[in-house]
Amino acid sequence: MASTVLVVTALEDVTADLVIASLNERGVPVVRIDPAQIGDGLRFGFRVGQGDAVWAGCLATGSRTVELGEVAAVYHRRPTPYATRFAQLPQQVRDFAGAEARHGLSGVLHHLHAALYVNHPHAVARAEFKPAQLHTAGQMGLRVPATLITNDPDAAWRFAEEYGPVVYKTFRGLPRSDDGRAGAIWTQRVDPATFDDSLAVTAHLFQAEVPKQADIRVTVVGGRLFAQQVSAPGSPLDWRRGDWDALVHTPVGVSVPVEAALFRYLLSFGLVFGCFDFALTGPVDDPGSWAFIECNPNGQWGWLPDAREIAEAFADVLSRKEAAPHGPGHVPGG
What we know:
334 residues, alpha+beta, five-stranded antiparallel sheet, four-stranded parallel sheet, 16 strands, disordered C terminus
């Protein structure tokens, strides 16, 4: 019977380390791979057809070997992009090698028979779009701030007139610079007087500013919820830009209506896990005080004070101790 958990992530991933440690404590077989190690550090041979209805074969790292049929669950975290693996090659060769690896190796790893995915990368790809998140949250009955997506400065100005003050948010964050440095664009209040034709260059996301008292992070894994109120000194618009060591975390309960909406949200995207962020505008036990900000379908949680308990919840789902509430983890039609 299949029992191995395949962990797909970069070689350095503290969050994945926590889950692997919990699985090791239970004696669950674990094989960790980074697909971008394709080459001498990662070899494979997969077969289908001639009587085999599903993909079979062997995947080998420098220290471990696993048959695809042994894989019961896949914890798909944050593998290194193939572009990094082939960065030293000429552009045409780099693009070709990366596409072949993605369609070949990842193409098989994303379609393992009867394996539970936490989360399936196809589901994550769909759930990462902010417009889909906001639309789905509203459909599930969650409070969603007035939002405008536009490249029209006149539309942005009219929105600010109606809902001001307004804030600007990015859809995906800031890519690394040419020298490899990471950066960030935080949620920030914007002055409508600065809106000009430069907005036409790309899409922008504006929202009515939520007069929040604190932030709420709800991490959902399988059938379990872990909710923390996050308070930052000075109540900044975006707590991520401050001193994380100064954050105050307080465990909070989740009302039945919000809890039900979160599970329906995950179900709609075919997700088993998600990190939900809310702005709290009133009493924590009032569902109407929870303004939906976003759901990261592959979010970080290792920094939270209940990270150990969250890791245990992952281990429960991946080892099939707890049944995933949304089916086998495959993407409908995926």
